[in-house]
Amino acid sequence: MTQPNWRPVASALKIPALPEGGIWSVAVEYVTGPRKLKIAARGRWSVYAGQDCGPDGDGFAEPVDKCLATNAPRGSLIAKIGGGTAERSGAILPVGRLIVIELPDPSAAGVTPVRGPLFLTMNDDPSKFADHSGEIEIDIWEAY
Length: 144
Known about the structure:
The protein has strands at residues 6-16, 25-31, 35-42, 45-48, 51-53, 77-81, 91-94, 98-103, 116-122, 133-143.
């Protein structure tokens, strides 16, 4: 199998645990398919004082049913494609330390288009974001 070649899109982009003025931080202004994106994250941020974790989240005892992504650990890095900075619309997916996202061709028959801004944030209950602190760094590449 042939491995894709990767071209940098963003390097050492700082993603705050408490985004300025909303829930999400913009990482890339617009993405659409067909496209492959690779996101790698590093560092630590705090869910609340004394409870820090890396981009894969942590084993916090609180349930994730009120978190933005109920299929990802609390404190983990998550992405959203589409929608705006203060809403839950768009395609939300877990990222963690590393993910490759394959965006389908929006003109393909039977495919729901996934396009718009690429946002990143910490997975948590939005009502608890005020307790967040710190930031992690991410790098983004696209296949060519």
